[in-house]
Design a protein that fits this description.
By secondary structure, this protein is mainly alpha-helical. It is 67% helix and 8% strand. Keywords: Membrane, Transmembrane, Transmembrane helix.
Amino acid sequence: MFNLYLAQFKREFWEHKTVMFKVPLIAASVAIISMLIMLLYFPSIDSKTIYVQADGDLHISFGNSNSGYSTHSSEVLLDSSQIDTLENWQAVEQDFPQREIQKKPEMQHLKAEDLAAFQTWSLGFSALVISVFLISLLVSSFSADRKDSSILFWRSLPIPESRNVVVKYLNAYLGLTFIYLAITLLASLIILSMFAVFESYISPATDFIITPLLWSLFWAFASGCLYLFFIVFWLSPIFAWIGLAASYPNRNFALVAIVPLLLISLVEWIIFSTKTFSTSIIDYIDKGMDSVSYLAKGEFGQVDFGLFAIGLVVSVLFTIATIYMRKWRID
């Protein structure tokens, strides 16, 4: 039994590997290459100059040079109001050993609430990206096999249509989410490694100024990655509706998916002058995003698991409707 499910998962992957694998991989590659170009172009700090300005303030200047041009930025080391005399001061230019003078910003020591806020934002953004990929996969999965008539071949096999539909949904919910997370985490590790190498060897005067901050943000995201599966199943009623809508038409999928929702909202507003249906959908999505924040903080009592259970029941009903829709469209 398990081997049959595994074979169907493999079939779904190979039929839709562009959406599931190639597109996320291309996006990650573009991010890595863009970051590499930025690091190569960014000027490396190769000299420091200590000098006294006319106002008597003691400065240290970091001279940045790259591709034939130079820029200077300075940090105030001592204010003139802190000393009694400036008679013997003069401008001195001296090359100091690299790493001897370092300016470490406070930003690399993030507070717990800052990391939690970043975790919530990053998971919300990832949920948005996954939703786009997931909807594309479901539309393709439930309509492509009818357009190319491959569904007739699979219907000829001793495999019930219910299993086909369930595997398609699980492949989207679990398979696509897992692949996205794996590629995202791998790309993040590669980018972080590039930052560490450049800060340590290419521009050692700024050694470990940015890297600790980025590592903190990376672990904040990585530690909450499993919550993405929670978000996906929280939004499963919407995805199941998309799959049901994609099982009916040969074209104009968007009309079948969106028009009924608009009609319900319009009829409700005309008859009752209320917007309960549309606001309920929006509130349901918002509560799913808020639940991730609660879970990340360990505030499980704030999560509305009752609403989550209702969403799963609606998702199951839409899944059953998808099975019968596909049978009806073929038979």
